[in-house]
Design brief:
alpha+beta, 139 residues
Length: 139
């Protein structure tokens, strides 16, 4: 895949992940990579408000993309999160295969489109709660 990182089309979302070539529905777009940590370290990072790029696979394997900005998957935003824009919908999902996680297209994606992936309702409920108590998300 030919993927580039540039300013997201979603307000206050920072950078976004875009494709320069068409992607077919069902195609693996990119692997979600980062530092591999266990559940204990995952929970420590959550307590320190360092959980903006954490992905849980299992208790022995979690991925933290925060310290690894060279891996582009971390820049995929959720079109159905806090900064929604009319007309933008998620076009991909996270899929776990063994001990790896991939972003996979849920529909055909045109060249030039931003990759939007569903972070999950639980993720956004947690972010909204943190905002309500004055704890700001990491990204």
């Amino acid at each position: 895949m030919a993927l580039i990182v540039k300013t997201s089309q979603l307000p206050k979302s920072g950078k976004g992940l875009f494709t320069t070539k068409p992607i077919k529905k069902g195609a693996k777009i990119i692997e979600y990579r980062g530092e591999i940590i266990d559940w204990k370290e995952y929970t420590r990072r959550v307590e320190r408000n360092e959980d903006g790029y954490l992905f849980f696979i299992n208790k022995k394997r979690c991925i933290d993309a925060y310290p690894t900005p060279q891996y582009k998957a971390r820049y995929a935003n959720d079109a159905e999160g806090l900064s929604q824009v009319k007309g933008f919908k998620n076009n991909s999902d996270y899929e776990i295969e063994g001990d790896k996680c991939f972003i996979v297209a849920t529909r055909d994606i045109k060249a030039g489109e931003e990759i939007f992936v569903d972070y999950s309702k639980d993720y956004w409920d947690c972010i909204r709660y943190n905002i309500s108590i004055g704890r700001h998300p990491a990204h």
